Each structure stands twice: as C-alpha cells, then as structure tokens.
Amino acid sequence: FPLFLQVTCNCFTISNGEMQDVGVGLYPSMSLLNHSCDPNCVIIFEGYQLLLRSVRDIQIGEELTISYIESLMPTSERQKQLMRQYCFECDCLLCQNQEKDAEKLAGEEHAWKEVKDAVNEVRYPKSKEEWERILARCQNLLSSNTGHLPDTNIYKLKMLDCAMDACINLECWEEALYYGRRTLGPYRQYYPGFHPLRAVQLMRVGKLQYSQDMFPQALETLKQAYNIMKVTHGADHSLMQALMEIKEQCEAIMRTQ
C-alpha cells in the first residue's frame, strides 16, 4: 500500500503527440519538481522519453515548476484535486487572485452543470457507433444551450473539443473544423503565452483547414502553432517535424497559385 501511494503521488501521465493520455510512468528526478498552476516549465513526451521545457525566461536562483494538474479547472476544483492526490494546498498567484474563475464558469449554472455531467460521462469510444452517439449528444447539448453558455465556459469548451474529436473520428472534416475554430479563442484566453495544449489545438485546426483547401487560413494557423511549439516542444520533436512538413507543403501550394 505505501508503494502504491508513492506511485500515485509521483507518477507522470504519459501523453502522445496530441497530448492525449496513453499511460503513466515514474521519472524519479522529475518528481523533485514542485507544482504551480502557472508554471515556468512544461513536461513533454517523445515516446516514453520525458522532456522538461521552459516556457518563459527563468531568473538565476528561480525555482523550476510544473503543473501537476489541468490548469483549465477553476481554483476550487484545482485545490480539491491537489489536496486529494498530493495532500497540499496551492498558494500560487493564479490561486490567490482567481481572476479567471468567473469567466470559466460564465453562463447559466444549470446549463453548465448539465454539460459538465455529460462531459464527465464520456469514455474513449472504441467503435464508430459509439462516436456517433457521442457526437449526437454533443450536438444536442450545444444546440439546446445556445445563448445560455458562452464558448469560454470551460465545460462547453470541453464539449466543443469532444464534438471535434468525434467528427474527426467519423471523418466529418467540415464540421470538425467548425467546432475546432470555436475553441481557439478560449484556448488563447486560458493558455496564454507558450502552452503545448494550445500549440496542438492550433495544429489540429490548421490540418483541418489544409485538408479543405483553405491554404491561406491554414498557413496562418500553422504559423501560430509553430511559434508556440518551437518553445514547448523544440525543433527536434517528432510533432514539430510533422508540423513543419505540412506548413512547408502549404507554403509550396500557395507559391504555385
């Protein structure tokens, strides 16, 4: 039991190129890093290799920090998760001022609670039929809550992401782009500066624009992803190489037009 607790407290969630969880691993030296909801470093994976990347200038003697949890959650939810899993309260600046909490929960409470429950019920589907059911549920909730919830509400944002994933898996490219573009404003608001999740989202939207021959828009979106990813991932990361390849293809097509 003590070993289980040590693993639970010190393990890292291993993610793939699109920041989707694929497993957990122990990296003892990285477990020495402390938490901040507004960290100066991020953890990126290349396969099973863990990379620590700084996302802003760090002063001599300044502590390196990472976020143990998803920073998108409102302060109260972050504090609950940190206490439940890591047994401490965070007193970082983001937790002290709570400036974005009102925007994260904007809209009518009954509406976002319904959307929150629906999002929490989603498990990764294994068949086309399951994806179709999830998309239908997302479409119904997004339609019924039009005017009740802004896209900046974090639970509606998660539902837009879910609808986008469903459309991609069902090869509904135009609808996937519709949902994806709606997420970019909230992503910019909640993941300012250099954040890998925003870079990946921009890349996904850029690829959808490229697939629908929207080359000028795709190039602009991919450039934004590139400017973030060169900091969060580095030039040698496989995802960065894939981004550069599609960006160069887009540039070549535009030169011939």
Automatic annotation (TrEMBL):
GO terms in the biological process aspect are:
methylation
Which Pfam families would you find in this protein's record? SET
Enzyme class, broadest EC rank:
transferase
Question: Which keywords accompany this UniProt record?
Answer: Methyltransferase, S-adenosyl-L-methionine, Transferase
Record-listed E.C. numbers: 2.1.1.354
Domain SET, first and last residues per copy: 1-69
The protein depicted here goes by the name [histone H3]-lysine(4) N-trimethyltransferase
Q: What organism is the protein native to?
A: Pedionomus torquatus
Taxonomic classification: Eukaryota, Metazoa, Chordata, Craniata, Vertebrata
